[in-house]
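Cast an eye over this sequence plus tokens and explain the fold to me:
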Amino acid sequence: MNLNATLFAQMIVFFVLWWVVARFVWPPLVKALDERSAKIAEGLAAAQRGKEELALANNEVELELSKARQEGAQRVAEAEKRAQMSADEIRSNAQADAARIIAQAKQDADQQVTRAREALRTEVAVLAVKGAEQILRREVDAKTHGALLDQLKAEL
């Protein structure tokens, strides 16, 4: 065996093997690597777009939340204002009713005082006539009696 022949045979096998690998194995391998690289790049781009969309969505959510908070605060303020107005209206109605009831009570009291005075005048007149009758020991006629009572009422 000759070392040169062995070296020459190994070189021929190497180049044949190199040609087979370069022709049949290498292109599918490079194609698979390129496809994987493209998928990874596409995935990274999609992830970046997703991050950007997430950031935009978060900003929109924050804006909507702030609007909702402002609207809620405004509604609460309006409700408090309406409640205050309602309370004021109820208070004024109650005061008006109280004033009306007090006026009615005063009017009723005045009427009762007037009736009591009239009743007292009548009783005093009757008592005065009875007292005078007893003093005089005689009966006064009805006309005179009525006239005396009317005069006594007027004086009292």
Observations:
- The helical segments are 3-136, 142-155.
- The chain has one domain: 3-155.
